[in-house]
Design goal:
Blueprint: H1 12-26, H2 30-33, H3 41-60, H4 63-87, H5 92-118, H6 122-133, H7 138-156, H8 160-165
Helix pairs in contact: 1-3, 1-4, 3-4, 3-5, 3-7, 4-5, 5-6, 6-7
Length: about 170
Amino acid sequence: MFGLFKREAVDKEAARRWRDAVTSEARLPEPYLKGWVTDTIYGRFNMVALVATLAMRRLRAEGREGQALSKAFAELLFSDFDHALRENGVGDSSIARRIRKMGEEFYGLASAIDAALELGGPQQEVAKVIQRNVQRDEAKALELADHLLALSERVERLPREAVMNGPEAI
């Protein structure tokens, strides 16, 4: 009977590898140098959110195990966001409010990108989401959409073993 309430065992090391791969990819200079996103804390947050969305889509495709890993990965990311805010001098009294706002922005952007990727002709749909949320310039939004779609293809091609163990890189 107690087995019914047993939680899925999640490989914390796999979640950490996903976090490392996503943040490494989000820190690559191209999106910042080309002006697709601003080189600010907010711009970097947006890049992490965009890349993490692709990772979470791939993880969810692996069923319950992947969904549990996706949740552990997201929790680790938000723990990092909390730590970064504290390092940047945000006071304890406003951390919870700031993290909640970041969560709303993160999941709002993730949901919109996820929906855009499900539609036919995803470049235009992804670019619209980017233009509404990240980059107002239409041409730069299209370029960032192309970049994300190429990255999405790489993430989708990861074999199950790499997905469940956490990739070394994306």
